[in-house]
Amino acid sequence: MVQAVSDAWPFARFELNWNQKVHHLNICGKELTVQRGLIKVARIAEGYEFAENPDSLIVALREAGVRADLFTFIQRLSDTTPSFSYPIEWDNYATLRVSTYDHWFTRQIGNKTRNLIRKAEKSGVTVRALPFDDVLISGIARLNNETPIRQGRRFWHYGDDLETVRSKNGSFRERSVFLGAFFDGDLIGYIKLTSDDKQEQAGMMQIMSMIRHRDKAPTNLLVAHAVRSCAERSIRFLFYAHFSYRNKKLDSLAEFKRHNGFEPIEVPRYYVPLTYAGSIALRLGLHHGLANRLPESVLDRVRRLRNRWYEAEFRRARKPIA
Which residue among 27, 96, 253, 312 has the highest number of C-beta atoms inside a 10 angstrom radius? Predict the structure, then answer.
């Protein structure tokens, strides 16, 4: 079972480029990121904002002098029929169709997940909504600093100071609900649940629990309360980043999503070249990056080597000096 995931921009791909940087900007009132690399890709905060008028947004991107080769965007989960004439590929969301909490608990998850939720409650874990204040920021910082390695990779938020934590979690505050999991009065996990502008869909923009409390299944209880929150607000879709990535076999995170009732929903993804380099990259398939052009067998070996290297670095960092 996965106990910690961070998906601040849930559909950006960083699989093998660990030094890749992302630039954040605002164009026409939309939050965008530019993924820096050989091919610079601009995208909206996907799942939370949408290009209702992409032509105007593309013109604004060019006029603003944004250094990007490609612009990509997707449609809403409620509208998966292609609506635009730009080059298109198909992508997927890990999505839960929400009706009522009872329907989810009795029909959309199995006994194993139901038992984990009951176990969390019997262990004394509670979940409640939290204001975005200094207490929450301090609690998130403590969660971030539990370990520098999560899921075999370097944890992006380890070592963040309080202001950085505040900045990273402060986006879309008017549309976000923070749910905290507590044990013996201490915050041991949280979800940042953010909806789109129409309150149609919501995403778990951040979800994390302390590794040392994994035996109490706080992450499962947090997901349960996220489903309850969406049902109470008549939000139809709850998403959790991709279900799976191109050429990547299903892993423990994909299994966690499946056990909690998430399924892949295919959505159209559009790519608009902004430069000559972007046109060439799109034609040659370079916009997917190196990781998506390698066989899964090679990627799996690289991930294993990377994980072992990080674990060794972590052990050396913790070794006391004589």
Answer: 96
